[in-house]
Every structure is written in C-alpha cells, then in structure tokens.
Amino acid sequence: MDRLAMYLRLSLEDKRAIEDGGFTQDESNSIGNQRKQILEYIHHDSELSKYEVMEFSDDGYSGTNMERPGMQKLLKEVKGNSIRCIIVKDMSRFSRDYIEMGTYLNQIFPFMGIRFIALNDHYDSREHQGSTIEIDTAFQTLLYDLYSKDVSVKVKTSFENKCANGEYVFGQVPFGYEKSREVKNTVAVNEKEAKIVRYIFSLAVQGKSSTQIAKQLYEEDIPTITQIRKPNKAVLDGKLHTWSAQAVRNILNNRFYLGEMAYGKSVRKSVGSKDGIAVPREDWKVITDHHEALISEEIFEQVSAFRPENSTKRNREKHPLTGKLYCGGCGYSLNYKPIRGKNKYRRFECRKHSLLQIPECCTYMNADLLEETVLLMLNKELMLRGNAMKQKENLFSFQKAAIHALKKKLDGYRQEKKQAQAEKDALYEKYALAQLSVGEYQRKAKELTERLSSLSVLEEEAKERLSRLENECQKAEEDMKQIIRYSHIEELTQEVVDTFIKKVYAYKDKRVEIEWNFRVD
Fold it and tell me: What is the DSSP string of 374-398?
C-alpha cells in the first residue's frame, strides 16, 4: 500500500503566541488542529483515503532550518522511497526558508515522484507537474521566511518588555521559590524549599565550607533539589543522591535570594538557533526588590568568599583519565590528586566517599598502579583486536569486490537513464514534428517515464548499499590503522585515552574494568 505522510510543526514562537493570546497567531496552529484539518482533507479525498497515513511532527522547533527530529525521520522515509505524498497545513509548517522550500518543490520531490500538498496555500504539486512553482507561491515562501524573522523579533521584544515590567517569564524557578498560582508571571516563596536555602546560608555564616555544608546536609538526611522537585527521576535513576559542594555554591552565589531578577544574560546566534552567546555580567539587566527575599544583603556579603570571582582555587594538573574514571562502588567520579604538600604520591580519590561512607567505595587508588593496569589492558585489547582484524581480511576482500561490482552497476543505471532520457527527448521532437500521433506519443512517453522512474529507484538503492559498504570498509580500515599506529603503547596520553577509552571503573580490591571506544562488531 502507498504511504502518505502528514507533517505537523509548532514552533516555540507559536506556543508563546497561543499562550499569550498572540499578535498574529491563534490556536489553529496547534498540533492537534493541524492533525484534524489534514485528516479531514484525506478523508474527503477518494484517492488519498486509500493511502496508509504516517505522522511526523516537531513540537517546539523553528522552521528556519531542517534540523528537526520529526523532519529528519520524514526525509529518511523520503530517501527510502517509501512516501508517495506529503501533506502539510501550509508551506511554513514544512520550512520557512524560501530557498530550501523551493529546492524541495522544484527539484527533490519531482525527482522522487512525491506529491506535495499545502492545504491553506491551495498548492498541489500534481497541478504543477512538469513546471516550476508559480510566482505567487514563490513569493509566499519568501514571505514565510521574512515572517519567521519578524515573529522572532516580536517575541524577543515581547519577552524583554515583560521582563522590564517585572514579569517572570522564564521556565525554571530557583530553588526556594515557585511560580505563583494566583498572579500570572510572578514567583512566590516555597516554604519547604526556602527553609533549606536559609539553613544553607546560616551554615555558611558559621564559617563552614561548601563541602562541609554538603556533608552536613547529607548526614541530616535533607533531600536534594532533584529529590524534592523530581522525586520519580531520583528513584528511577538508581543513584544515591547527595548534596554536592557545587550545588551549595550555586545557591550561595545566587543574588535571586536577595529579591533581584536578572535578564538579558545571553543572546541568540541567529533566528531559529537554540544556542546563545553569553552576555558579560556587567551588561545584565537587573530589577531589585522584584520578589520576596530569603536572605539579607548583610548575610549575602558575609558569605561572599563563595563567589567564583573571589575563589582562591588553584589550577590543578589535569590527568588523561580525568572525566573518564569512576568509582565502581558508588558510581561517582574519582578526582586526581597530584604530588603536592602532604601528598607523597599521585593518586585518585573517590569524591563522595567522605560524604557517603559506602563500604564498597574505592576510597583511593595509586595513579602509577592505575596507569600501568590500564596500559596493560589496552595493549592486550589492541593485540586481540589486531588478530581479529587479520582474520577478517577475506571479508574485506569480499566487501571491496562488492563495492567494485556496485559501482559498475551504478554506472550502468546512469547510462540507461541517460539513454532513456535521450529517447524521451527524441520522442517529443517527433511528436512536435507531427511524426507521431497523440496516442502513440503518450503511450511511449509513459513507458519511458516509468522506465526512468524504475531506474531512479534502482540507482538510489544501489547508492545506499554502496554507501553502507564503503562506510563499513572505511571504519574497519580506520580501526586497523589506529591499532597499528598505537601498537605497543608505553605512555597513557590524552590522545590515547580519548581514542580508545570511554569509561574506566576502579574497585576497592584494585580491580579495573574498561568500556572501550572501539566500534561494536
């Protein structure tokens, strides 16, 4: 059965417009309404109602680029030649980039034999077969592109105006507060959380360090932010949740607890981009007395030593295994401790042992011993992989022969397509010169069109198989080159670790387990 794809999209701007009453949008843009409109159209079309309907959607994604999960799944199906028709509410749902939209309508979809329908734009590619999109449609896609930029500017302006008016329009509320249930876009104190925040500041005033505070919170069984706000996640991830020194510092450094709200901390790189560029702190916009403070200015000043800019923390020597080494007992990372002061030898220490006191923790491990063990295991693994590669040489030879055969087949398909197209051109010339009747021309033209379509499908299938085989061979050759290059490694460098090692687990009995970066066979 032929497949029909309906594509639905709702951008963040659309969402905000719907929530706020909008300046040009209404609820008709919601995913549910798009779905309803398209399904009704399909139901009333005798041909389309026979198709198998597939749904692809992107909720909260801009149409200014094609990097959307639902869109990528749709394009994968298109590439696999499994879609005969695509329906959208309007062209802007598919893309707001008028150049990209034109490329799909004029080149890609006609080549793949895909019918494209945009309901609100009254566009059906079947009515434009063999010709480019009409000038009004081209202008429409250009207007969508310009409209997207206009919406982005309006949303940004609306957002900044709300912030300037004191409205809290951010998604996350700092620990100790919650969104007010009575007044929209305001925050209220969450007494359960606020009690913990005040307690943390009181401990800091007593001169306790962030690490000491985290340890005391754990010993007193005070729940973490995750345990309070996401209890289901805290249970399901299976980890023993504890307060960290960083979480404590984040609270002690946050001026939100003084009643201040800051905005304008970053700017977007471009329209539709999710990435932002950080704005210097001195350029932030700050509103004082914005909400109820949890601590006084005097208390905040007393714990100012916790601020990052006043930190006396030294730049530590980085070990190649840093960020990849974990305690096999508790699952937390191990910190590297170089020779310094009382430290007589280099070692790794479990950063949570003093806090958790778990008997199975790998409290510490000699760095020299660990490096020697990892090197030994790595060289052994490389030797085993190298032997396995040698045994696969016959498979490589077969794959290379298959690649050669596929390339020849592809060339054959291309030559046949070229010949069929030449025949089709010649056929039209004969028809234009009245050397063929209308019926005979249509019959032969249809045969050649079907032949070209069939050859295109065979060509795409061969290209896909060829790409897959070439990738497999390339990966295998890269693995072999890496193994040869790094055979008999004598030093554990950052390059070696990043190339071959994903994670290392160290256990109390000095046992070591390694997760490799090797390609899965």
Answer: HHHHHHHHHHHHHHHHHHTHHHHHH
